[in-house]
Design a protein that fits this description.
278 residues, alpha/beta, Rossmann fold, six-stranded mixed sheet, 9 helices, 31% helix
């Protein structure tokens, strides 16, 4: 039987179940506290965008959620278990993370990069198989990267490179996907291209998505839930309409702005007026 990229199953974890949580998490670089006593729950099948000004702790929080950083206090919980006490391979089978600027070894082809997504499923008892080949081929096809499979990753455009990394995460077979600024350095058309792909992963493949974004209008358009941070603290969470208020924009971003309906999607659209002097 040919292997395929799995869809999310609801028998083991039904809709609304908390998959990933920060429980009183405190994160610091040396004496510099970046995130302080933060609580956050991410439910199965959700699409969440973390927003906030530069330096507020968004990416640091995502690193902790992805087990790349250990809290100085509190804990991150994955499927009811402390993530730091969960074996690395077990985490990698259910959680995939793409950092802000992922780097591939020089000369590595797209196909080889995507194949690395299968590593968590390998062991001395289970070596590379035709099933793995099928999963990689489907991931490349699904992300429209099949024609570029033999091209070196470092020869791709920015948008193509992001699609290659997302293809690797798809081949990994995880149903939790964390993305740190996946649209960084991309022009607007490629930003839309990448976010449309992530939205398809969520809608058609049932992935639970957490993404850090700077662009509030794109966050409101694609995510179903926003989490707003300032100075390492969670200050608001809810639907885009609940979070993106003119008062919050003033309090969190020091920005006077108007919030109007997006003429295409009806989601909140932020129209900046001026920076507030405080």
């Amino acid at each position: 039987m040919t292997a395929t990229i799995p869809h999310r199953t609801t028998t083991a974890r039904g809709p609304g179940r908390v998959r990933l949580a920060a429980d009183g998490v405190r994160l610091a670089y040396g004496a510099d506290v970046v995130v302080d006593r933060l609580d956050l729950e991410l439910t199965d099948g959700s699409f969440t965008a973390i927003v906030g000004p530069n330096g507020c702790g968004k990416s640091t929080l995502l690193r902790a959620l992805g087990r790349l950083m250990r809290p100085t206090s509190g804990q991150v919980v994955l499927d009811g278990r402390a993530i730091t006490s969960t074996p690395t391979k077990d985490v990698a089978r259910v959680l995939g993370m793409l950092p802000q600027t992922p780097v591939a070894p020089e000369g590595l082809t797209v196909a080889d990069l995507v194949a690395r997504g299968r590593h968590p499923h390998q062991s001395w008892l289970r070596q590379w198989s035709s099933d793995d080949e099928s999963v990689v081929a489907e991931a490349l096809q699904w992300t429209d990267m099949a024609e570029l499979a033999d091209r070196p990753v470092d020869a791709l455009s920015g948008g193509q490179r992001q699609r290659a990394w997302i293809s690797m995460a798809l081949a990994q077979g995880t149903d939790l996907l964390l993305l740190d600024e996946p649209t960084t350095y991309l022009d607007l058309s490629h930003q839309i291209d990448v976010l449309e792909l992530v939205a398809r992963l969520h809608a058609e493949r049932g992935r639970t998505v957490v993404v850090v974004l700077h662009d509030l209008n794109l966050a409101a358009r694609y995510a179903h839930r926003l989490v707003a941070m300032k100075d390492g603290v969670l200050v608001a969470e809810g639907t885009p309409a609940e979070v993106l208020t003119e008062q919050l924009l003033a309090d969190v971003f020091d920005l006077e702005a108007r919030v109007v309906p997006d003429p295409v999607t009806g989601t909140p659209m932020v129209v900046p007026v001026r920076r507030l002097n405080r």
